[in-house]
Amino acid sequence: MSFPVVGMVGGGQLARMCAQAAIGLGVGFEVLALDADESAAQVVRSAFIGDHNKYEDLLAFARGCDVLTFDHEHVPTHHLDALVAEGILVRPGPAALINAQDKLEMRKTLSAAGIPCPAWREVASASDVAEFAQTCGWPVVLKTARGGYDGKGVLIVRDQVQAQELMAGSNGQWLAEQYVDFSCELAVQVARSPHGQAAVYPVVQTTQRDGVCREVIAPAPIDEDLALAAQAIALRIAQVIEVTGMLAVEMFLTDQGVLVNELAMRPHNSGHWSIDGAVTSQFEQHLRAVLDLPLGSTAAVAPYAVMVNVLGGDHPDVYKAYLHCMAHDPGLKIHMYGKAVRPGRKVGHVTVIGDDLDDLLERGRHAAAYLTGEITQ
Amino acid sequence: MSFPVVGMVGGGQLARMCAQAAIGLGVGFEVLALDADESAAQVVRSAFIGDHNKYEDLLAFARGCDVLTFDHEHVPTHHLDALVAEGILVRPGPAALINAQDKLEMRKTLSAAGIPCPAWREVASASDVAEFAQTCGWPVVLKTARGGYDGKGVLIVRDQVQAQELMAGSNGQWLAEQYVDFSCELAVQVARSPHGQAAVYPVVQTTQRDGVCREVIAPAPIDEDLALAAQAIALRIAQVIEVTGMLAVEMFLTDQGVLVNELAMRPHNSGHWSIDGAVTSQFEQHLRAVLDLPLGSTAAVAPYAVMVNVLGGDHPDVYKAYLHCMAHDPGLKIHMYGKAVRPGRKVGHVTVIGDDLDDLLERGRHAAAYLTGEITQ
Predict the structure, then answer these.
(1) In this complex, do A331 and B296 lie within 8 Å of one another by their Cβ atoms?
(2) For A16, which residue in chain B has the nearest alpha carbon?
(3) 3-state class of B31 per DSSP?
(4) Beta-carbon contacts of residue A181 (< 8 Å; ≥ 6 apart)
(5) Exposed end of chain A (fewer CB within 10 Å): N or C?
(6) What is the mean pLDDT of residues A148-173?
(7) Number of Cα atoms under 13 Å in the Cβ half of residue A23
(8) Mean pLDDT of the region B268-281
(9) Residues B75-97: what's their mean pLDDT?
(10) Is the pTM value of this prediction over 0.90?
(11) ipTM of this complex
């Protein structure tokens, strides 16, 4: 047996960080990217340039790999089904992945399995939304079943008129969800391999702004029983949907315990801390899981890790800021994605590990704000 | 300022592990490799295929990079001088690198600076060796000034007749060194940048077999004063020779303190533990140093790290052994270099971190022996 080749559809930073992990593992790693300048395409031997919406591109790419996996959820389900029929190992498989592609499918699956979710229902009209609001109250969270990420496709509506405006002219599916009053947001990473081995990471606390993840604390500074309950829910979801690879379960922490918000079936922003903060990073773990290799230890290497995203700002010179941050804090781990700076775009992240959470938060936030250009000293 | 590009001459595993670090840093990384299947050439966007002995190949490669550095010491000095004259940033520069290329130059430099070395002299004949032995006794360590690595070019001679046999017909330079009775071997990694910032790693203990590094313990289980003295010597050498990038100083620990054995001016086998065991790996640090970026923290992330090399053996199926080792020990970090197995060839390494040194040694040795094929359970 020779060392296998993983093919990842999508050339973003998740694929880039998987490429880094593949070098250590010694496994082959190929990327299907839209163009040669994408984040991951810059750092692999020879990216396959193609369109993940075209079946022929997917098939040609997959034929050069031992297993196919994903940096995003945008591959159409009927293409995935056709690839499986062709004998391609697709991991996660389409039946699992649908739960990360379609929020309505996800809610149906989780509710059927008794997983705690916010109250929800499928809605076809503003009057459906108003009817739903009679039980849960306004505002209502209105979501498109497909196509959302980083907060896109998620809307908070205060009344029937606003729901009417938003839904007018749409022919997609919608669901309405209870607006949850949460104390904080949590995420749990689980790896699961085809033969059913699962490994769960410490629960993390995430902070979003404008629907985009900004900051992660690992482990979440919450009660241990709550953390165990959150991990148990994530493991149960992994088993129910039979995911292969990494699963990220985003949750709300409420007075009544945790409620599942979203799922992702790939390495996820809430797990980036694991590169510097855990024995096995989520990127290495994803490769191990989709290759059906034994999973690695998810143990943390320090009492705390803090990860803060670097979003593109109006900064004139990121490299100069990068020099400054390195000089300012030799313990900082800066990760840059090779992406051109555009306002709000994720262009990198910083991680710091140690035992003093307040110190780590201050250092991580300072570096990210400096790199983004929000502060200049 | 945009992110710069480092060009590394040589496509071995050191360049491969630098490629991994470059992905995280977001800097460009190019490799000059002899062929496209070399370890590092497999994992960079597009390796430059050429010969490091040909000036035109070196120059063409260097013109596409912001700074030139090395995965080995085999580039002829006159080519390096010509590149510098051409305006290429060569780091480490030829005047420093000569001390890693030529053992006679190294001994002259270190002795002039008062650095503790084994007794030595240049020898041109077997009678010179015999004369040297009158002061130090037999056996004598006879070394070729150039061309040695992994124990090659280093010979232990018991008498004048044997020296005569070895030196006959050679037109290279030789030096004779005292055969040192050491209690263990140590190594110290230092990073130094062009503006003179230096950072030193914890002293490690190395174990060689047949002249090849087999095992590294970080930090070396030695007295703290001794460790500080060893670090001070390594820092002094970095300053004296004005190295840029990583410097590895190999030392003997003797009753009279430490004596310097060899120098390498690049990431070194004795520093591989730092990928998993330190905040900043020696590979990231080398890139930071040659780019004149501020250096990163050299702090360890665990009380101990153990690194054991995986040498090619007669093993029929390394991948199967790799699966076994991963299943056996989820905390193990296996690093494979993408190299075909040949007996004695370095094809990978394993690292384990933790607080129980005996446990780490047992796990690291077991995994390496299993991967090498020395044991089958």
Answers:
(1) yes
(2) B23
(3) strand
(4) A254, A255
(5) C
(6) 83
(7) 29
(8) 98
(9) 97
(10) yes
(11) 0.96
pLDDT on residue A12: 98
Spatial separation of the C-alpha atoms in residues B209 and B108, rounded to whole Å: 28
Q: Which of B125, B122, B104 is nearest to B168 (CA)?
A: B125
pLDDT tens digits for range A18-56: 999 999 999 999 999 999 999 999 999 989 999 999 999
Domains of chain A, earliest start first: 5-90 (3.40.50.20), 119-178 (3.30.1490.20), 184-372 (3.30.470.20)
Contact A23 B45 (CB under 8 A): no
Average pLDDT, chain A: 95
Residues in chain A within 8 Å Cβ distance of B1: 317, 319-320
What does the pLDDT average to over B301-318?
91
pLDDT at A211: 80
Q: Are A310 and A346 in contact (CB under 8 A)?
A: yes
DSSP 8-state class, residue A329: -
Q: Are the beta carbons of B24 and A25 separated by less than 8 Å?
A: no
B138: alpha, beta or left? (left if phi > 0; alpha if psi -120 to 50) = beta
CA B350 – CA B312 distance, rounded (Å)? 14
- Among B25, B38, B42, B43, most A C-beta atoms within 10 A, so best to mutate, is B43
Strand order in the sheet with A48-49: A48-49, A28-33, A5-9, A67-70
Q: Which of B279, B328, B347 to mutate to test the interface with A (most CBs of A within 10 A)?
A: B279
Indicate yes or no: CB of B1 within 8 angstroms of CB of A301. no
State mean pLDDT over B131-143.
95
Partners of residue B273 in chain A, C-beta under 8 Å:
none
- The Cα–Cα gap between A163 and A117 comes to 22
Report the pLDDT averaged over residues A111-137.
Answer: 96
